[in-house]
Amino acid sequence: MFTTFAKRALVVGAAMTAMVLAASGQAQAANAYLILSDRDGRQLGTMTHYDAETDRFTVCDTQSEGRNIIGKLYAEGGDTPLLTITDGSDAGCDSKTYNLRAGRTYEMLVYLSGEWEFWRTMEITE
After folding, report:
1. How do the pLDDT tens digits run along the chain, 126 residues long?
2. CATH code for the domain in which residue 82 is found
3. Which of 18, 12, 14, 52 shows the shortest CA–CA distance to 32?
4. Global confidence as pTM
5. Per the structure, how many domains does the chain have?
6. Does residue 9 lie in a domain region?
7. Is residue 60 part of a domain?
8. Whole-angstrom Cα distance, residue 26 to residue 41?
């Protein structure tokens, strides 16, 4: 009787493991968030990827120092930006959409205009 119970428990456990693995098998990109800061840790701006049916990218200039925050999206290994967003010291942030392709890797880049000293990058995979 114990061996029958153990066999059934093993079969049920294996089936449940297979269901969990099948349900989580497809990885999806999550929202990505880049923060651009100066040497003192003061936040200068942000670039955010909102993962939805149509991917949206938003760039925000969080300081009113007169310079722009620029965000770019590149395909992995690419030299030409697929998307460029510039936000100045105006109210609100600037956004654009770009449909990322499944299974591809992209690079987000955010920097302070005129100063390559302050920049950040992040790879995202759809």
Report:
1. 445 544 454 433 433 333 333 333 333 457 999 999 988 999 999 999 999 888 999 999 998 778 899 999 999 999 999 999 999 877 789 999 999 999 999 999 999 988 777 899 999 998
2. 2.60.40.1930
3. 52
4. 0.72
5. 1
6. no
7. yes
8. 37
